[in-house]
Design goal:
Layout (H helix, E strand, L loop, with lengths): L6 E3 L2 E3 L3 E3 L16 H12 L4 E8 L12 E2 L6 H12 L5 E6 L7 H4 L4 E2 L13 E2 L2 H21 L3 E6 L4 H6 L14 H4 L1 H14 L4 E8 L8 H13 L4 E6 L16 H7 L8 H14 L14 H10 L3 E5 L5 H9 L4 E4 L1 H5 L3 H6 L13 H5 L20
Parallel strand pairs: 3-4, 3-13, 4-5, 4-6, 6-9, 7-8, 9-10, 10-11, 11-12, 12-13
Antiparallel strand pairs: 1-2
The chain binds flavin mononucleotide and iron/sulfur cluster.
């Protein structure tokens, strides 16, 4: 297999095996939660510059699943239809497919920010979002399933080439699948099959309405939570996903409370944390600076997950051997040699997030032989910027004072 060749991944034809992994861009319309012209221009630029496929940043399927990041995309308001149709048509002009990632935040949001009591499979506190969620009733589960199905139907109608269900990074469906987040004793918990029931029911209902339309999954194959995801358990999850008719699995890792496991870095981006994360960002500036200085002293002593490159490759290779479903690798893919190693190991496609934030024309540079290594320094500042503003690359440097958003 070559990186730059026509291929079909998860039933979607692509011109190469390089995918833009879902990235929250913070550019949704504040009223409809649909795409703005600014977001459309950004995706057109990626498409023009040879990305094989774009996975749109996560779009929320139900009002009680909203993110507390500003200007997150949503898929539940019909007023967003026009913007989505404009987006998919614009990207298709360049022969690039686009997939809608669909999510419900579950415990990883705050009730105050979304204005509704947040919900989860089990009413368990989250380290970073400490207000307690309400345990979902069976009616809640069926309603959320239907919201996912409605969103899949809308994605097809809006012209997306497929959807990706977000079963990763600690969001609602990840919590259902993992024993860490799911302590239920009814038919939606207790055994692997029961924990997977919500996913199975979404797929069964969706298939009745959209037929063979491509449905992908992003899966945290491993995380650091106790009784969380481990590769041997994820293999069983992947086999069930295969029997449910999932067309591709993007192998990721971690949950938001794992620290920087999903997007690995040598150190926490302390300047960005103190500039963008509340309540730190709103501290009086002398206090903010004093605590920041102390945190920076300790930062090198805080252990970070390793390795920093290709960190989901071992799990992805295991999954690839176990199922016929196409496997996409994300996480620490930043050079041509990383890509060749992954594809050479039998992985069907690689996806990248930070390299495309840093250089949206990275795929073209690779194709034309103008680059073999991303310029991204994996500082993770962009992951903090989105707590207040649209995503952008800071290259490790936070400029004070911040512009008022
Ligand atoms: C700013 C930012 C926004 C992200 N938004 C999403 C998202 O909307 N959905 C998702 O599944 N992952 C999201 N991620 C995680 C990435 O898709 C990816 O899994 C992770 O960054 C590792 O890949 P990388 O090493 O290529 O950055 C985001 C990461 C960053 C840095
Ligand atoms: S801020 Fe820029 S350099 Fe740092 S991780 Fe994000 S994209 Fe890479």
């Amino acid at each position: 297999m070559e990186i730059f060749e026509d291929c079909i991944i998860g039933k979607i034809p692509m011109k190469n095996r390089l995918i833009r992994s879902a990235t929250h861009d913070g550019l949704a319309d504040p009223v409809t939660q649909g795409p703005t012209d600014e977001l459309i221009r950004k995706y057109v630029y990626l498409a023009k510059n040879d990305v094989g496929c774009i996975i749109q940043g996560y779009a929320i399927v139900s009002p009680d699943g909203r993110s507390n990041y500003p200007r997150c995309l949503g898929f539940y308001d019909p007023r967003a239809a026009e913007g989505y149709k404009k987006l998919t048509a614009a990207v298709h002009e360049y022969g690039t497919p686009i997939v809608a990632q669909l999510a419900h935040c579950g415990r990883q949001t705050s009730s105050k920010a979304i204005g509704i009591r947040k919900i989860a499979p089990t009413a368990k506190r989250h380290l970073l979002y400490p207000d307690k969620a309400r345990e979902m009733t069976k009616d809640d589960i069926l309603r959320v399933e239907n919201d996912f199905v409605d969103a899949i139907v809308r994605a097809k109608e809006y012209g997306f080439d497929g959807v990706q269900l977000h079963l990763a990074h600690g969001y609602l469906l990840h919590d259902f699948v993992s024993e860490n987040g799911n302590k239920r004793t009814d038919e939606y918990g207790g055994s692997l099959e029961n924990r997977m029931r919500i996913v199975k029911e979404i797929l069964t209902k969706a298939r009745e309405k959209v037929g063979e339309y491509p449905i992908w999954v992003k899966l945290s194959a491993t995380d650091k939570r106790s009784k969380g995801m481990r590769t041997d358990y994820s293999l069983k999850v992947a086999k069930l996903l295969e029997t449910y008719g999932v067309d591709a699995i993007e192998v990721s890792c971690g949950s938001v409370q794992d620290g920087m496991n999903t997007m690995r870095s040598k150190r926490f981006p302390m300047d960005a944390i103190f500039a963008y994360r509340e309540p730190l960002a709103s501290m009086p500036s002398f206090l903010n600076r004093a605590v920041l200085a102390a945190a920076k002293l300790f930062n090198p002593l805080i252990p970070q997950p390793k390795p920093l490159e290709l960190y989901n490759l071992p799990a992805a290779v295991e999954l690839q051997k176990a199922v016929k479903t196409d496997i996409i690798l994300v996480g620490g893919v930043a050079s041509l040699s990383d890509m060749q190693k992954a594809i050479g190991s039998g992985i069907d496609a690689v996806s990248m997030c930070r390299p495309f934030i840093c250089e949206p024309d990275f795929a073209r540079k690779l194709k034309e032989g103008k680059s073999t290594q991303s310029k991204c320094i994996m500082c993770n500042c962009c992951g903090l910027v989105i707590e207040k503003e649209p995503v952008r690359c800071l290259m490790g440097k936070v400029k004070y004072p911040l512009k008022k958003s």
